[in-house]
Amino acid sequence: MQRALASVPGRTLLLALLLGAPGLALAAPGPRLAQTAPVDMDAALAQYQQQMAAYTAAREAYEEVAGPYWAAITEKRRLRVAKRRDRQPVDFDDYVLTQPPTYTGPKRPVDPLARPEEAPQRAYVPVVADFLEAAATHYKFVPQRPRDELEYKRAYAQAAAAAGLTRDQIVRVYVFECGGNGKYDLQAGLEYRADARAISSALGYNQLLHINSVSLLAERGDGILKSLHAKAARLTGADKTKLEHKIAIVKRMITASRTVPRQWSQHEKLAKTPQGYGMHALVLDVDVGPLLQTQKLLDSVVFAQRHGMERPLTAAELEMMNLTGDGNGIDMVMMPAEMRTQVPTSNFFQRNGYERNPVAIRNNTVAKLLAATDAKMDRETNAPGAKDLAAAYPR
After folding, report:
1. Cα–Cα distance between 8 and 21 in angstroms, integer?
2. Crossing angle, helix 315-324 and helix 326-334, to 10 degrees?
3. Could you report the per-residue pLDDT of 110-129, keeping only the tens digit for each?
4. Least CB-packed of 99, 154, 193, 367 within 10 Å?
């Protein structure tokens, strides 16, 4: 039987088996096969077409409402950016105050004639092995891993303290981003099982994306080099030589990051190349990774100060800027308390990001999202990893 089936093309075989086509000789069915009712493909196709028509009608009706809603979100965001740039106050009229429409129609039906390979494939998400391979291939770089988790925590805490970030800020952001026991090389989606599927390129204590690594090198590379040179000046012998070699590699990465215009869209394109992957491996390095992650948070603090924030950011507010980007996060941070209870979280996300974010959907106002963020931070700050990071912060 196997030899007979091997000579039949896959789609032809599928149709023959489903329709009972003449001329295809198969072995006599055993008792279990004899009990299986034959598939009526005409009926299956008719049902599929009926379901597809219902699905299409439901999606079109939904898009008639959802399309204008998300267009309004985008337009309001554009106007807020312009207002903040011109130092004008932002009020209720600058937000969409209704919650986004929810699709409640049927799911897209499965085509009975579709082959498995025709199903939509999820885009591949690069993992640590890809970043390491790219770093070795394009920059001859192997990250210097910490001897243990405490060594990385001490380096991160020292860099954060030197930058003016508080213990509370870095510990609670760490807790929110990768849990109370997250490791320095943690990748999003792999928090609990190493054999799971990565959901993004986010790495480390505050979950830098590979585009963040590229952008930070391009825009803040000189400051990172300054910190590395200062550390090298305190070393001698082999340790000094080793760090100076690393500095030369980081310089090459910075040069590569600046081969494209300093625009987020251009950094995103570069981040998706092997050269960009190699830059992201720096997050794993005990000397450079803490500087990159500290700089990301520091940029948010400085951005808030530049836009009129005079008090220190709470950890939850800093996380909002880290999570949604400074341009969106500043709106939540600067928002008066009475507005926070009424403004939907949808105002601060792109549509596709919001629809994949159950936390933002469930906590659907700014006040609820900040409260949920604080609650998660409260729950996990007593975990061993969080305590170790707090203890590592210079006194």
Report:
1. 12
2. 150
3. 998 887 766 667 788 999 99
4. 193
Q: Give me the CATH number covering residue 165.
A: 1.10.530.10
CA–CA separation, 291 and 158 (whole Å)? 10
Residues 6+ positions from 258 with CB-CB distance below 8 Å? 218, 221
Tens digit of each residue's pLDDT (9 = 90 or more) over 315-329: 999 999 988 889 889
CA pair distance 103, 109, nearest whole angstrom? 15
Question: The domain containing residue 18 runs over which residues?
Answer: 2-34
Number of domains in the chain: 3
Nearest alpha-carbon partner for 102 in 390, 270, 387, 346:
346
Residues of the chain above pLDDT 90, percent:
74
The pLDDT of residue 7 is: 35
Q: Among 31-35, 120-124, 204-208, 222-226, which is the least confidently predicted range? A: 31-35
Answer yes or no: do 230 and 369 share one domain: yes
59 and 28 in a common domain: no
Tens digits of residue pLDDT in 126-170:
999 999 999 999 999 999 999 999 999 999 999 999 999 999 999
Task: Determine the Cα–Cα distance for residues 64 and 217; give it in Å rounded to an integer.
Answer: 43
Q: Tokens for 181, please give them.
A: 């026991």
Asked if 207 and 184 count as a contact pair (C-beta separation under 8 A), the reply is: no
Residue 29: its pLDDT value, please?
45
